[in-house]
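Morning run. Coffee first, then this:
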Amino acid sequence: TMRVAVRTIGGAEAAVVEAQPTWTAKDVASGLGDRTRDPALHCRLLFGSTELPPGVPLADAGVCDGSELTMVITAALRVVTASDDGTTKIWNADSGDCVGTLDATQPGKPVVAAGFSPDSQQVVTALAEGGAA
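And here it is:
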């Protein structure tokens, strides 16, 4: 077991974790509380100035007893898709999970294009036979 401190990007201590050398960044993040489990957020862990690569054991990344990691939380990247069934789906790009489905505004009409507004708070769609929602 190794004791690893996790700090916010501002330098405040977020947690001290008793980790196994075989743990990955995902294992460490899962023990950091609700902030890292929110699907709308993406948690990255840095060792020095390098992001811990997914799936790589802490020991292989050079993390050892007494090391400090920096936690960076950002909004998760989202992708929007259009479908012939008239629905539009919003996906978490990191996990591949569908996080929302917008039902057809005009059932039976395929949605041929979809995109986010500049502030990413709204979705606009275009229908095959003209029209937008």
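The beta strands are 2-8, 13-19, 41-47, 50-51, 68-75, 78-82, 88-92, 98-102, 111-116, 123-127. Good start to the day.
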